[in-house]
Structures are given as C-alpha cells and as structure tokens.
Amino acid sequence: MGSSPNSKPKIVRGTAGYVLEDVPHFCDYIPDLPTYSNPLQDNPAYSVVKQYFVHPDDSVPQKIISNKDSPRGIHFRRAGPREKVYFEPEDVQAAIVTCGGLCPGLNTVIREIVCALHNMYGVKKVLGINGGYKGFYAHNTITLTPKSVNDIHKRGGTVLGSSRGGHDTTKIVDSIQDRGINQVYIIGGDGTQRGAYKIFEEIRRRGLRVSVVGIPKTIDNDIPVIDKSFGFDTAVEEAQRAINAAHVEAESGENGIGVVKLMGRYSGFIAMYATLASRDVDCCLIPESPFVLEGPGGLFDFTEKRLKENGHMVIVIAEGAGQELVSESIQSMHKQDASGNKLLQDVGLWISQKIKEHCAKQKMIINLKYIDPTYMIRAVPSNASDNVYCTLLAQSAVHGAMAGYSGFTSGLVNGRHSYIPFYRITEGQNKVSITDRMWARLLSSTNQPSFSIGKTIAEEKREEEANSHGPTHAVAHSAGQ
Q1: Which terminus, N or C, of the chain has the lesser number of Cβ atoms within 10 Å?
Q2: What range(s) does the Phosphofructokinase domain occupy (predicted)?
Q3: What average pLDDT score do residues 259-271 get?
C-alpha cells in the first residue's frame, strides 16, 4: 500500500542527494499550537546525560553502506525526546491497544509505554483497550498504572487481549473523541498498521490534536524498512528447543528424520536464523526458495543421500514453503473428506507424509518425527535482548507522541531508533533474499542443494509429460532420453 490519497508524503530534500521522509506533525494541520518545556529536563534520572534532547535535524539513513560517490539517500527522523512538547502531562489521556496474533514482548511494550508516560513525563491517565480494535466499539477499557503493569513482562501473550479485524475507522475515531483520548499507541502487524494509518488520516481530517503511534509487531520479521521486529530474537531462540528435540529423536532411531515446522507464512527469517544458529539442520525450506520433491537435486534425492551418509537428518520448513506443491496435492485429493484436506494444508504434515510415502516405495525403513512448536513459541515471554528492544521502542514512541508527531511507526533502522511514516511500513513485505550472502551462508552450513537445478529438471519432465499427450509424443520422448 502506498501513501493515502488524502495526504502527500512529507519529503525534505538537502544537498548531495539527501532525502528525509518525514513524519506528520500537529503543526501540519493545526495552527498556533502552544508548546511546553519537556519535563525530562527536571528528571533526576536524566541529569547525567550530556545531551538531553535529540537535535531537531538529526536523521538516520535507510542505507548505511555507501562509497565516496554515493548520494546521501533516504533518511528518517531520529527518535528521542525533544526540547519542546505539545502536551501538558495532566492533559494527556493515552490509550494502548494490541491487535493480531500473539508475539513475545507484547506485555513488555505495554509495560514500558505506561512507565515511560508516568515516570518520564508525569502522565497519570493511561487506558488499555481490551480485545484489539473491537474494544473501541465495546468500550472495553482497563486503567493501566505502573503498579498494575509491574510484572506483566514476565508473562507471554497480552494482558489487553487481542483480536483480528473489527476495523471501522469512523467508529474508532468517534470513540477516541468521546473519551477524550489524545494519544493512541497501536501495537500490531502490517494489517494493524494499515488500520492505524486510516485512523490517523481520519483524525487529521477532523483536525484533532490526537497523536497516533504504531509499534510494529510481527513474529515473522516481515515488516519492511526496520532492522527487525520485536519478539523475533525470542522466536529464534525458542525454535532451537524444537530443532534440538528433532535432532535427538533423529539420532536415536534407524534412519531417523526430524521435521520441524516454524512460523513464516511469506518470509522465512525464523527458519533461516534458527537453522544458522542450530547447526544441526540438514535442510531448510522457506517460501522464498522454491523446491522440488522428485528427480536429481530434489528433496527426496537429497534425503536418501543424507541418510546414507549420516544415518539421520533434520528438516526445518517454514509454514509458507512449498505452498504451490501443497495446493497441487489438495486439488488432486479434493474428493477426500474434510480431515484429509486439513492434513494436507499443514505443510509440515504434508511433507512428512510425502517423505514416508517415497521411502516406503524405495523399501527404506525410516523413523520420522514431526514437531510443530508454533503456539509454544508465540506464547513465551520475551528474552533479555527483546526486553531491551521493546523498552526502547516504547520509550521512542512516547517521546514522539509527546513532541507532537503522529502517523508514524517507531522502529530500529541501522541500529538507531527512528520515526517511520506509516506508508513505508505498509508498502510491502520484508523477505529473505536468496541471492544474498546470508542465504549463501545457510546453504554452506547445511550443504543442501539450492533446488534450482532440480526445479528446472522437474519442469522439463512436466513439459515432457504434457507433450506426450499430443501428436509430438515420439519426438518429445526421444528428446527426453
């Protein structure tokens, strides 16, 4: 999704090809707003800091690799506290909402938004919207205080509950207006951030002094621009437990095969990083890298070779990998009952079954164990590095809202916290580049085939079979020989 038709991106240009993709500010659509001194300058915790406030012109480059002739390129506004704020602490009525699926770190983000508002800025009125966007309609709210959120980061899930859908922009903004809310913190994935963008546009259309701030949440790490999303490190770490269990099972049986399915509907980052971290994986299959089952260079061929060499193997597969192969199977088996179809839609179960069928044909005895740790991974509390990351994301979001910025997402760009316009976060999906060094490192680690050669052979075989039904059958067949 590009920028909304209601507003044009804020672009600031400088010398040597410098481009700042700026984020909206109250001053863009509300004239003559009063400003106030930032309460942080009287905060004893900050008295040791040499530079209290971020310089107004500080920005962070999107691309950090350059050479002497490179243009300076696209930048984003650097996150952090500003000298002037656009809210008096006693006037702030903040609201926090979590949407979409669970992810490690949600409770940490909630906790740290509440604590940053209270401890840094003296804001006392913070509401939690219960049950995702739908909570705005149902008027489900709970009061959040530093005391009530003190221990929530030690638990998985979200204390506010979550839901998918339920997005009526007008109703949500009506509810924000009715309750006197003037800061909205929205934690969720790309769909949620698209919803947040619509909420911001409606608030701007009405001329309201309400800051709408997004904090990007996706366990798959598939949100563009940002270095990584919170919860990703924890997910990779937790995936190790499943891979380790699969490895133990595989090693302990004759021709043991451990299959682990990990999250990654469109992007294989968790599978790739878990594989690299583990070093026990023989084959990693992700949505970005198509694979084939049969023929030279196919998965079956590789499985047989690896079992002959080592006597066991571990396969990691992302949930979105091989979907075109799964859908072919579903189409050919659509006359089966509902439970049969459900089995085939799970790529982990599907590939496990395919390997078993192939090995049975080859008269190979195998012991295959399938592990799906998806919901165990999603539900754990965040680890140390994610807890720190969530803390900084939340504090950056609060600094931005207090400074009068709106319509932005708080995120890490090249190791620096930045404010990114909503339209950049929702414009596409971050995916593993299989022409990148990181994927090459994985192939080097696992010694798996790239499957591209096998795929070409399989495509030629399919074409040959298709041609064999036509008048050129003899020619096609002899060419295939």
Answers
A1: C
A2: 94-399
A3: 95
Query: C-alpha angle 326/267/249, rounded to 5°?
Result: 65
Q: Is 220 a catalytic residue?
A: yes
Beta bridge partners of 316: 260, 284
101 is in an annotated binding site: yes
With residue 413 as reference, give the H or E element that holds it: strand 408-413
In angstroms, rounded to a whole number, what is the distance separating the alpha carbons of residues 329 and 479? 28
CB 370 within 8 A of CB 348: yes
Q: Which of 240, 261, 239 is closest to 323 using CA atoms? A: 261
**Is 265 labelled as part of a ligand binding site?**
yes
C-alpha span between 313 and 322 (Å, rounded): 19
User: How many Cβ atoms sit within 10 Å of the Cβ of residue 414?
Assistant: 14
For the CA atoms of the chain, what is the radius of gyration?
26
What's the token pair of residue 479? 């060419």
Q: How far is CA 1 from CA 24, 214, 309, 423, 475, in A?
A: 18, 16, 48, 7, 49
Cβ 178 vs Cβ 172: under 8 Å: no
Taking the mean position of all CA atoms in its chain, how far away is CA 249?
30
The whole model's pTM is what?
A: 0.87
Q: Cα dist. 346→223, 281, 320, 322 in Å?
A: 24, 20, 9, 11
Q: Of residues 22, 220, 222, 386, which has the active-site annotation?
A: 220
| Calpha distance 426→207 (Å, rounded) | 24
Ligand-binding annotation for 195, yes or no, is no
Residue 326: per-residue pLDDT: 84
Q: What is the mean pLDDT of the chain?
A: 88
Nearest to 219 by CA among 274, 166, 165, 258: 274
Nearest to 405 by CA among 183, 201, 230, 75: 183
What's the pLDDT at 335?
41
Distance between CA atoms of 194 and 171, rounded to whole angstroms?
A: 16
Lowest mean pLDDT of 380-384, 407-411, 423-427, 473-477, name the range: 473-477
120 is in an annotated binding site: no
Per the document, the length of the chain is 481
Tell me whether residue 189 is annotated as binding: yes
CB-based contact 118:94 (threshold 8 Å) = no
Residues 6+ apart with CB under 8 A from 420: 21, 23, 76, 225, 226, 408, 409, 410, 411, 413
Specify the pLDDT at position 341.
29
Going from the C-alpha of 431 to that of each of 61, 226, 269, the distances in angstroms are: 20, 12, 8
Q: Is 322 annotated as a binding residue?
A: no
Write down the pLDDT at residue 344.
Answer: 38
> Exposed, middle or buried by CB within 10 Å (0-12, 13-18, 19+), for 35?
middle
What mean pLDDT do residues 205-228 have? 94
C-alpha to C-alpha distance for 36 and 405, rounded to whole angstroms: 15
